[in-house]
Specification:
Layout: E1 12-22, E2 25-36, E3 55-57, H1 60-64, E4 74-78, E5 82-83, H2 85-91, E6 111-121, E7 124-127, E8 135-138, E9 144-157, E10 163-169, E11 173-185, E12 191-196, E13 201-202
């Protein structure tokens, strides 16, 4: 339980284990990190990104650390609700804006993100341009974002293609996802996916 660790410890070598059931499937594995920081909660904690050992996300810092793994075809599971408000204010204090994860086209998110019916709260993103959403794009037909909600978001851009989950999709899928809050664009309609390829889907 990382909540019980001393605060503000950096560069720790930590072995984390997981032995439990997620959505009816049993997982049991361990992962060692040599650079874990309790101050930020960064370094996705447990797993190797495979289907049997998905990366497990508990903290705002780990959620942000997705940007270092976003194009690897990895599997991610979110195991608790995450509130980004304080994290964005402290980590991105100069802009008070969470940076987009990935770009678009082949540089978009490539993997499977399963929120396990949890939510991410208080996502705030602001840009003078467009193509703004949590993910810049869903890169492939095998890319899936599912079972997750974005609640009380504020996403505002001056350019087109502004959305909650993905600014564009190359046939990727949103399944059992929802978003609430305020999304503004001066030049486009607001959608769950900003612009989509022919077979892209959002539910």
């Amino acid at each position: 339980n990382t909540d019980l660790w001393p605060a503000n410890k950096t560069n720790m070598e930590v072995t984390m284990t997981f032995d439990g059931t997620i959505e009816g499937k049993t997982y049991k594995f361990a992962t060692t990190s040599k650079n874990y920081s309790t101050e930020t909660g960064k370094i996705i904690s447990v797993g190797d990104g495979s289907e049997d050992k998905p990366y497990l996300i508990y903290t705002p810092g780990q959620f942000d650390d997705l940007r270092n793994y976003y194009n690897t075809g990895s599997n991610f599971k979110q195991l608790r609700d995450i509130n980004l408000e304080e994290y964005i204010a402290s980590t991105y204090s100069s802009t008070n804006s969470f940076p987009r994860i990935g770009s678009y086209g082949s540089s978009g998110f490539n993997g499977i993100y399963d929120g396990c019916n949890h939510v991410v709260k208080k996502l705030r993103m602001v840009s003078d341009y467009g193509d703004l959403a949590l993910f810049g794009g869903l890169a492939t037909a095998n890319t899936v974002v599912k079972n997750v909600g974005l609640e009380d978001v504020y996403i505002c851009a001056k350019g087109p293609w502004v959305a909650a989950f993905a600014a564009e999709s190359a046939d990727g899928s949103l399944i059992n996802c929802h978003a609430t809050g305020e999304i503004r664009s001066e030049r486009s309609l607001i959608q769950t996916i900003g612009r989509a390829a022919r077979n892209a889907s959002g539910h």
